[in-house]
């Protein structure tokens, strides 16, 4: 064995060769109570201090998620504080904006927010934007496209503000809580995960600051710069509001039955199939009829994808669906399930539907049931702008799932009130017709000519097959041809395709 002197010489030589210092010993060990140490985490801050420490400046990009939907309390709180602190010309990049975010109107008028990127707009904010509230058009992306844009740098987030149902002082955070004092849960934080991964600075806001470690967690402390405890991040009872609804409408039930028949006879309804349903009433109701047929035939699904509902959780617990892949929990039942069930897994919007990730789940999706505001005779779909020209919806994962699934099914009525849903040309192109396979209405089923094998299978099952032209003519025979909308010359919205190209624009509505 080498002498101590020889070993020291060898250590010095190794350090010199590697360009490193030689070990000089450690300082005296300081014994600190662990709980005392964690409660003194230097990441804990007030909202104002966290904003100042983040280095946020005028003109930068801030981001938010919408997992609490109509119960969200974070966006209004943070933007209100930013206005109070005097910030201007900010780019707000939220996964979606809805009715509860009406206070943003005043912050736009005052120049605090001058640009918006989002998947959707609803409520009075959407109405004001449709009439020309903003100088710059709102940029609309699908959920998968937003995730991809954050990952590839098309959206550079300077500071991400993420509302979490629970977090510890080091920043380990998630959308549920194991605490008896839990105030709010939202389940999956899928839309916030790319923000946490790629933002320059990440601020977690929570109303349940728990003892370390808050694991397993959705967001690791390694991604988090500051943790802010607030009174409430959201109202869990309002997650399932708006577009997410069960239905007792007889027409929706009929549409759901027809959609289920399409799936059952499509050729894709077999052992190990995968499925996603949209948020519309008919889409969600179709799950009940599919369940009955699965039990009758004795088959199970490999996974259900997307926004997970209580219906999907029930089928999973019954053994009909092997696993749930959750980018957004659509109700409290789904949120609780994700906390307790290891086969109910959260995914980021990139892992869910990014066209730039080979492993994104939509690439392995067999069937998707989606809703629509309008479908035109070329199978193009609009889910964003209403028949009155007002923005009143969200792109969501619509074009992502339609493009990647083996079978995409649109469910919509022939008419909504006095408004036709089958038209010559959609008001705004959201999902290209080349990605849509079947359109289900109460007056018949239209199959894209690109899919003749599907049409033959449905005909063989006795289903009524029609053309979209026939459906359009029937609608017009009932209510006449709608007058053109009074659009102005100002572009208030830009819709991006999944590849990042500009697909359509939205003009301001006059009057």
Question: Would you give an account of this structure?
Answer:
- Helix content is 30%, strand content 22%.
- The N and C termini lie far apart (92 Å).
- The model has no long low-confidence stretch (mean pLDDT 94).
Secondary structure layout plus pairing:
Elements: H1 4-18, H2 34-39, H3 47-54, E1 61-64, H4 74-84, E2 90-94, H5 104-109, E3 113-118, H6 123-130, E4 138-140, H7 143-152, E5 159-164, E6 166-167, E7 173-174, H8 193-198, E8 201-206, E9 226-229, H9 250-264, E10 273-277, H10 281-297, E11 301-308, H11 310-317, E12 321-329, H12 332-340, E13 344-346, H13 349-353, E14 367-371, E15 374-376, E16 381-382, H14 398-404, E17 407-411, E18 415-416, E19 419-420, E20 422-423, E21 438-441, E22 444-447, H15 452-460, E23 465-466, H16 468-479, E24 487-496, E25 502-509
Parallel strand pairs: 1-2, 1-5, 2-3, 3-4, 4-24, 5-8, 8-9, 10-11, 10-14, 11-12, 12-13, 14-17, 15-20, 17-21, 22-23
Antiparallel strand pairs: 6-7, 15-16, 18-19, 21-22, 24-25
């Amino acid at each position: 064995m080498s002498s101590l002197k020889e070993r020291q010489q060898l250590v010095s030589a190794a350090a010199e060769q590697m360009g490193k210092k030689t070990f000089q010993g450690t300082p005296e060990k300081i014994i600190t109570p662990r709980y005392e140490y964690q409660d003194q985490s230097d990441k804990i801050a007030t909202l104002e201090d966290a904003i100042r420490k983040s280095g946020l400046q005028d003109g930068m990009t801030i981001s938010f998620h919408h997992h609490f939907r109509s119960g969200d309390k974070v966006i209004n709180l943070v933007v209100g504080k930013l206005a109070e602190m005097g910030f201007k010309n900010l780019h707000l990049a939220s996964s979606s904006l809805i009715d509860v975010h009406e206070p943003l109107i005043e912050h736009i008028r005052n120049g605090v927010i001058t640009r918006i990127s989002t998947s959707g707009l609803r409520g009075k904010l959407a109405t004001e934007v449709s009439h020309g509230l903003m100088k710059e058009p709102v940029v609309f992306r699908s959920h998968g496209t937003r995730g991809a844009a954050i990952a590839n740098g098309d959206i550079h987030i300077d500071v991400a503000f993420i509302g979490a149902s629970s977090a510890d002082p080091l920043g380990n955070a998630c959308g549920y809580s194991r605490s008896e004092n839990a105030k709010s849960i939202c389940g999956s934080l899928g839309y916030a995960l790319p923000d946490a991964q790629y933002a320059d600075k990440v601020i977690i806001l929570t109303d349940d600051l728990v003892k370390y470690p808050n694991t397993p967690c959705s967001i690791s402390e390694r991604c988090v710069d500051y943790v802010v405890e607030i009174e409430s991040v959201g109202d869990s009872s309002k997650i399932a509001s708006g577009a997410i609804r069960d239905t007792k409408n007889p027409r929706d039930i009929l549409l759901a039955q027809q959609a289920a028949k399409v799936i059952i006879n499509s050729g894709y309804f077999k052992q190990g199939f995968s499925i996603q349903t949209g948020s519309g009433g008919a889409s969600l109701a179709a799950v009940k009829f599919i369940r009955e047929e699965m039990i009758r035939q004795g088959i199970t699904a490999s996974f259900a994808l997307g926004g997970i509902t209580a219906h999907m959780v029930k089928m999973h617990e019954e053994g009909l669906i092997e696993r749930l892949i959750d980018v957004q929990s659509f109700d409290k039942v789904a949120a609780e399930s994700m906390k307790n069930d290891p086969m109910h897994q959260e995914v980021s919007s990139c892992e869910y539907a990014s066209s730039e990730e080979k492993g994104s789940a939509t690439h392995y999706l067999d069937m998707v049931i989606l809703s629509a505001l309008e479908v035109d005779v070329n199978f193009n779909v609009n889910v964003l702008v209403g028949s009155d020209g007002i923005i009143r919806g969200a792109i969501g994962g619509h074009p992502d799932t339609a493009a990647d699934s083996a079978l995409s099914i649109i469910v919509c009525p022939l008419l909504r009130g006095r408004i036709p849903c089958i038209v010559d040309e959609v008001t705004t192109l959201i999902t290209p017709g080349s990605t849509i396979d079947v359109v289900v209405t109460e007056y018949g089923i239209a199959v894209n000519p690109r899919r003749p094998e599907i049409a033959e299978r449905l005909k063989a099952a006795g289903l009524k097959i029609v053309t979209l032209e026939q459906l359009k003519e029937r609608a017009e025979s009932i209510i006449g041809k709608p007058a053109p909308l009074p659009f102005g010359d100002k572009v208030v919205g830009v819709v991006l395709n999944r590849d990042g190209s500009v697909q359509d624009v939205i003009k301001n509505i006059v009057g």
